[in-house]
Design goal:
It is built from 13 helices and 3 strands; from the N terminus they run H-H-E-E-E-H-H-H-H-H-H-H-H-H-H-H. The radius of gyration is 25 Å and the shape is globular.
Length: about 350
Amino acid sequence: MSRKLLVSGILALVAIAAGCIMRRTPAAALAPYPRQELIAEIKGFQKTLGFEEDGNFQSYSEKQRALYRCYYTGKLDLPESYGQLQLKEGSAAGCSLDEEKYDVFFYEMEAEASGDAPVTEALAEAPLERLLVVVPHEDFHNQKETERAAPEIAEAASTLIGFLAAGEFAKGKYGAASDTFERLDREPRLFLEKARIVNAYFGRVSGVYSAFRAKQISRAKALERKAELFSELERECAAIAPDPASFNPCPGAGNNAGLAFERTYARYYPMLYELAASRARNVEATDVGATDVGETDAGMTNAGAAVAVLKRLLATRPQSELDLRRAMGELSEEAHLRRSAP
């Protein structure tokens, strides 16, 4: 074959291939999935609150319904957070762990804050209120300020912002008189009740295990007291009323793994609720208000004010309660000086 014919043949093949690719593109494009437009609306709304754009929820996953995680720990071990729990991948069938040996929490996750998290089937099919909360919760995790904070602080902040952003979005989309808005508007307070219960029982259960390690009580007595405390915990959290719309009132497992997991979200939530929910929402005009930190204006929504306040706080890279209190004190002092200035 001559060089000229060879080149012509190659060019023809390239042209055919290109044509095939062009014809296949529409078929290969992402097929519509449930609530695709709604998720796009939520993400657009988040930008008006001060969220930086990320790559979460830009695609749909058909490979896996959800993310299956198996968190576990010892029968008399209570870690401070999920970061200290042992972790094993699970499946839709559950966890292949010996529950006689370990306390196990099987968690079916709709999403995680990877920065490019897809929309899973579980998220797309979740109750409306749950969907509206999960998207801003995960996206707030991927804000640069949140990523620098300790996991327990980041989870508390993302949990609160998820509730506030979802409520503001629902108010605008469905109306202030809608059931959706009314249910979401009370979620921050209901989770505060849960957080206080979780934190209280975390301390009580930890105390039992400390007594066991100090040989003040026997293993049998420790296990007996553990069972009593988890029964009490279940009764108290189940009594939270009205029923939360976007989260479970009780830990996902009534054991050490479930409690340690919930502690991650609950530990600092009351502090951040006081700062961002009460003060930034102008429920209580105290030291740090939405306009006090110089990040907001009178036209900003309540959720936007909370985003600004928490971003400012998290920018200090807090890793402990001491860090948080110091940063909150600095914000309060700055607010006081601003109000006192002539």
